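Researcher: Last one for today. Full complex below.
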Amino acid sequence: MDFGSTFFYKYRRFIKTLKIYLFLAGPGLIVMLADNDAGGITTYTVTGARYGYGLIWFLLLLLPVAYIVQEMTVRLGAVTKRGHAEAIFDAFGSFWGWFSFIDLALVNWLTLVTEFIGMTAALAIFHISPVVTVVIVSIVMMLMVLQGKYWTWEKIAILFAALNVIYIPAAFLVHPSVGEVLSVGLIPHFPGGFNGTLFFFLMANIGTTIAPWMIFFQQSAVVDKGMKEKDIPWGQMDTLIGSAFTVLVAIFLVVVTGTVLYGVEIESAAQAASMMMTTSPWLGTCIAIGLFNAGFLGAICISLASSWAFGEVFGWAHSLNMKVREAPWFYACYLFALVTAGGVVLLPNAPLILITLFVQVIAVTLLPATLVFLILLLNNEEIMGKYRNTTLQNIAGTVIVVAIIVLSTLYGITTLFPEWLM
Amino acid sequence: MLTLETIFGERIGSVFRGWTNKIHEINKKYETPRIKMSRGVKIALMFLRIYLILLVLLLGYKFWTLLK
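Model: Here's the assembly. Have a good evening.
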């Protein structure tokens, strides 16, 4: 075969693979990009402003962490055809089932409030009132699910997820020194020495990488999409690409704030965007749009994760492939979560800072249980058959789960008792 | 006898009755855990119980210090 024929054959094969991937891509890509939600974007923004490029190496370590945990949900969903809430009830009984379910419902609702806080703060930079933001976002989110097809919802969500990469061109706008980014960012070190504050930032970055809703969302999405055992490799590839994107976006955002705001005391991404608007309107706009999009993406995934969990536990019809009349409770849960979480943000004198802190503490009560159940389920031969964890997967999974549990617990405790860190 | 219907009235009481019946039904359905309670599983579940008790105690302590 000559060179031209070989090239053409490989090109056709690549295009075919890409087409299949684009058809099957979804849960992994969406959940991983939604992982960079409003809270995540704020964490990366503040990290960059405080430590410059100094913690980029640490963000790279989060890629395998995110992939290994989320990949397990792909296998579990494809093999059991059950969401995570139902899987916990079934495998561990009603006590652990109710604990996980009630905790998930609470932490998801609180996180949804923080997504609305992020979205309203982002659009306030463009002088759009919070009422308008909440109403329009709620309408768009309802329209996305009401069209009655999972596939359509997924492709719309991917379009919104694609906007998450806005931080990549934003990084080029600030003209960072590539040599400095590579030399400072890629060599593992602790900028300013290892101290309590740095430890808090490391924990915060890990805390934003794996959240309980991500596990519930991806498993339910895999089930609703109808993925089967044969689709597992595609789901794994989807999750890997998503993990790479989530880390890439985080790194580019750190580069932006590490270049422009290094050494400036900031508390949120919205504050960073406002500051940048005065010096570079394009950059400020990118950061604000990115923050809004992050909140929006987080909101669509979190509210769906809750609705799926309610449907699984109570035995209601729960699929985006169903019309409202076929799955009324599923859509009612979705609407209820949106309206109440959005409503709280609009309340005058609502304790929004307290809610933001409370989310971190409540998430810590659920995350260890969710991760431990995930590992136990993935090791059960009766449930997983030949798709159960291999020894290598168990070693990697267990190390990561133990590390996440220890660090997220310390993060939660430091949020409760900041004086203990000093 | 005190029932949900006598406390909340016929209409709201029957709604609550429906919910409690549903919860009983779910509890019955998942009464027996499907997973085999091996030594590893028992240790993991025990760890989770202790972990959650400690967290609740910490939250309680925080609440107490706030009140103080």
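Helices of chain B lie at 4-8, 10-29, 39-67. The radius of gyration of chain B is 20 Å.
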